[in-house]
Amino acid sequence: MLPLVASTLDSKNWPFSLELLPQPAYMVGGAVRDAMLGRTREYLDLDFIIPSDAVKVARMIARHYQAGFVLLDSERKIARVVFPQATADFAQQEGDSLVTDLHRRDFRVNAIAYNPHTQEIIDPLQGYADLQQGILRMVSPANLADDPLRLMRAYRQAAQLGFTIESNTQATIRALASHICTVAAERVRVEIGYLLANSQGTPWITSAWEDGLLTHLFKNSTHESLSKLAAVDKATALLTANWPQLGVELQQNVRDTVKTTWLGIAKLACLVNSNPELAEIELQELTYSRAEIRGITTVLRLFPQAKVADMSLREQYCFFQDAGVAFPATAVLAVALDNLVEAMVGDSSLSAYAPLINRYLNPDDLVAHPTPLVSGKELIIALNIPASPVIGKLLTEINIATAEGKVTTAQEAIAFARQLQKLGV
Predict the structure, then answer these.
(1) Whether the Cβ atoms of residue 49 and residue 77 lie closer than 8 Å to each other
(2) Nearest-angstrom CA–CA distance, 330 and 353
(3) Which partner for 18 in 11, 230, 356, 386 could form a disulfide, CB atoms 3.0-4.6 Å apart?
(4) Where would I find the beta strands (DSSP E) of 29-116?
């Protein structure tokens, strides 16, 4: 029997009882592969093949545990059960046997099955040998052509596992690269998101671009664009070493997205048109979310301004208001491109950015994080004026005056606003 990591495959750690799984049934895919590599997961992602009634089994398990149920593919009979700390996909066996099913998979390391009832490993394609060598090898060119997203997954899985792609497999990917155009942009974006989320993905997203998988998506990207990605990785390491909290925020996901981090936002800004307005159109065509597009265009607009130099307190205030939660991505891109152009190294390259970064990371800093002394409603009542854009302007001036130390109380703020009103602000 091949070595396994019991904590990953042991049915005692599953979110449902093995007794509810019919015989025969097989675990396949990433969970088996990762167990054999000794990789553990906090969130379990389990895949099962069942010879018949896969959807019925999934529905029964979901009902038994009051878990979520999603019919993923009615034609191929694939369903998902969603638990708080795990998902379990149940798929009807393709073909007349398990071996036939495994021969239809993408890479040999993913074509290994485990029978939890007998603890038997089924490895007809010698995927375990590839695991030992750290190689991603296709099962067949036809399998990659059948689902062209698998072309992109090769690079993502190589990055995640620290593997290399076998030469014939990579040659086949290059030959099939144009097929990626048939895949929905949002499916490709998920794979790209993985590759942009950390430095391990940068060489592989570069390879994917060179092999023709990304040129139709990022039409404005060049070799220089890819060199910027590596510069962002270096800048991230530099910023994280000096301001660990900034590194933490760069790894956080953008609101309302699944896999896009703020580091990914900074990298996407390297791949699209440098003009924010044109980049917005490009990103809309790629079906990025409003939050992602807003983040990328904000970074493109603001990163040239990120050096304090002669920036006044008012200009700094406006900068932070414009940047908002996109500040970490703005800062890392500014440092990256500055270092790339100036060939700077070490902490000296950070001195121009330190004042803004320190302000941003200080929750009590009134320039980066203003604490309003009065609300718009209070101004409307105190000044006896209607709601209008003027209120917003007055609040901005009060916040700036507070940061400058000119006003410190609500009463002073209202008096200051009244004076501005007389001046026609």
Answers:
(1) no
(2) 11
(3) 11
(4) 44-50, 68-73, 78-83, 86-92, 113-115
* pTM, two decimal places: 0.86
Q: Within 13 Å of residue 325, how many CA atoms lie on the same side as its CB?
A: 16
Spatial separation of the C-alpha atoms in residues 118 and 273, rounded to whole Å: 55
Each residue's pLDDT tens digit, 13-70: 899 999 999 999 999 999 999 999 988 777 889 999 999 999 999 999 999 999 999 9
Residue with tokens 């940047």: 323
Q: Which residues of 133-167 are buried (b: 16+ CB within 10 A; e: fewer)?
A: eebbbbbeeebbeeebbbbbbbbbbbbbbebebbe
Strands (E), 171-294: none
Query: Quick check: 412 and 394 in contact, CB under 8 A?
Result: no
Structure tokens given for 349: 């390259």
Three-class SS state of 391:
helix
pLDDT 10s digits, 68-126: 999 999 888 999 999 998 999 999 998 889 999 999 999 999 999 999 999 999 999 99
Work out whether the CA dihedral 294, 300, 302, 307 comes out positive or negative: positive
